[in-house]
Amino acid sequence: MQVVIDSIVNVILGVFSLTEADWATIGINMIMGLSMFLPMTVGQLSFGQAGFMSIGAHIAVVLTLYAGVWFPLALLIAGIGTGIVGLLLGVPVLRLRGLLLALVTFAFGQVVEVFFLNFKPTGAAEGIKGIFPYTDLWYVFGFLALVVIFLARLRTSRMGRAFEAVKLDETAAEAMGISVTRSKLTAFASGAFVAGVGGGLYAHHAMFIQYDNFDFKHGVDIATYMVLGGMDVFYGPLLGAFIITYLSTALQFLADWRWEVWGTIMLLVMIFRPQGILGRNTLNVRRWFSARQAAAVSSRKEVTTPTPLGMLQTVWRRQDSVVRETHYEKDWHTAELLPGGAAGAASARLRVWR
Asked: Which of 63, 152, 298, 343 is deepest in the core (most CB within 10 A)?
């Protein structure tokens, strides 16, 4: 028992002994988690982020190692180049959904891996060695901060509301005048851009890249950051990337048994928190207090009634501020019982929303 307690204490306190290289790895993985979150803002699951990361890494290395380009400029060019590839890929594949889209993006990652395996200018199977160690914490967390600020602003912007509408219902969003194709392409290309910059940072941190550094397993790891941390909020992948990256190092004392422990943790999260550790309301303290106050008011007669999806979509079209409320409560809303019946209850609820 004492051994178990000591192991748990060591895992917890190990956070304070992380080196600069460990924090750089954690930051890069957080960037990659956010790169996968961007397509998910329009409901698109992509397993091609490792492929985009590979393209960005090779572009940045070729520019800095062979052309002598300034490192920040090389990162920018790598991101733009990868974003263009994502845009070109998105035109034919974003008509697909769900499993089919996941399979196509997985195939894209395999194509990129085989391409660099046989592409001699970038070393083919031998990879590229002698890369300059330009990546430091300022570059990693500076770019991470920019992406976080962008996603925080996107959440309340007109484009962000369009992304949310496409994610909830493409047909209703198109009926509202939102360009579904443009929204999907923008989110997909933005995710590719972030992955490309993340690949450039990774290459100049590892100082060696090879085709199998960006294989399917790495793509699954990136997806796990988002699934574990939370798929509905941008700070979910940040938490997921930190937990996975840290535990992969902290549990090394268990040798091969660490994979059983890690698998058990994932199973428990999927059973008890299928939406991920962080949900849309997990950190909303104001909503916690409002829920308690609503429960304390006993004189107010309320009933939870099912509402057809079409009615929710109509409300949503008339009032943009209802979009997030609709997303939280799905096909249900809470309304006061009024003499007007169901119609009166719906109108009363509308007054509360405004």
From this structure: 63
